[in-house]
Amino acid sequence: MKKKNVLFIIADQWRGDCLSMLGHPVVETPNIAALAAEGVTFKRHYTQAVPCGPGRASLLTGLYMMNHREVQNTTPLDARHTNLALELRKAGYDPALVGYTTTTPDPRVTAHADPRFRSLGADMEAWRPVGSWGLTKLETYFPWLTAQGFSVPENPWDLFLPQDLGPGEIGASRKPSRIPAHLSNTAWFTGLGIDYLRSTRNKPWFLHLGYWHPHPPFIASAPYNEMYDPARCPSPVRAASAQAEGQQHPLLRYYVESIPRSNFFQNGQGLGSAMDDAEVRQMRATYYGLIREIDDQLGRVFGYLKETGQWDDTLIVMTSDHGEQLGDHHLLGKIGYFDESYHVPLVIRDPSRAADGTRGTQVDHFTEVVDTMPTLLDWLGQPTPRACDGRSLLPFVREGAAPARWRTEVHYEYDFRNISTSQAETALGLEMDECALAVVQDEHYKYVHFAASAPLFFDLRRDPQQMNSVAGQPEYAAQQLVYAQKMLDWRLLHAERTLTGYAASPEGLRSRG
């Protein structure tokens, strides 16, 4: 049997529109574009939840958040759920992890004194860490820097301050990071991945290659800090003022009035919503530089696979856990209900001859991160667990057509209870379990349902940027009801079903997959 390898690339906080082959006006991703020329690009791919923990839980379990219920970064993941790594072990793989999964263990089966309950970077069960960033962010990276002869300050996070910080700099900066590019965490993750690949030449392998960037802090090493001209970067899509933006919904008003720049820049002061157009453009130029750095590093990985004769034996999947607002709607981060937080990249390059007819194509159908696990298992000839909410994307990759009864809309969820960093629950006067929203969206309309407040409804044909909700307007009442029913249909169809295909009978246990 031919050797089958998988390179599963997950960058953190990469917007779905930031790929050169999708026509982005500024950012350049030549290595990913070359990968896409040999594979398939999914143009309307959405994460199912934000931030990192919920998004990665959906990505690595194939479950919608309403089923896995890891609702925030620090919320435990129920131990009863299978995951991609557990299923890969059934196929004889020892799945390797470079990076992190942002998983908190189940406290019902894990001692409460376990140090993983004091961290944000624990790993999901069954992955074998070969390049972990540690239980807290980058705790293994900073000692590595020291070992390279680089001077690390007492507070290592000061390394993410700009060089020659000026007295008036309170956020976005064109100045470079104090860390040279060859010692950046992006280069470090890449080196860890290549080191692992060197050890696996004679056996099939599966590598989760994770990158922290373009996650903030938004500061890039030279030359990436000056690679893009802020004047060429798009201006943010937003209302005339943060106050006007917040009138759309109380949750949005809370965020535009509370998100600090310090979450995104080591020298940040004040609110993110107060950033002017020039500051947003500079932030975007830096963000694009961080993306280009990852693309360059992926060129190293792809080159290694080609040099060692493994390129034609390796499935490559490139994606992200969630997007980034980048100033759109006066927001920073991955938050709320706008597309910028949920639209993510997906490129699949299948080396088999069966995929020759689709190379270089782009898919317009809606796809979701819950489809990733079924796709990977399908390519390896493994069954998809019945509990999974997604479906394999291989028909798009090999046949160039959607499977029968493919979804016509996309779905995502957000939970904003006071558990990790959000204080929206208190600010909005809600009970903990009322702090939830869910979205159903197609080409024409977007419906946002809140557990304890009025919904939003957007006519995407007239208002593609979702500036003005038409919820409650008489002429949209019938259409809004249709989408509320779609939401209910979706939840009924995907209610947890691990055992719902089994039944007792006089002949014994019966099952239907």
UniProtKB/TrEMBL annotation:
Record-linked Pfam families: Sulfatase
Superkingdom of the organism of origin: Bacteria
Domain Sulfatase N-terminal: from-to ranges: 4-381
Presence of the UniProt keyword Ubl conjugation in the record: no
Signal peptide bounds: none
CDD domains assigned to the protein according to its UniProt record, in alphabetical order: PMH (cd16028)
Keywords, alphabetical: Hydrolase, Metal-binding
Protein name (database record): DUF4976 domain-containing protein
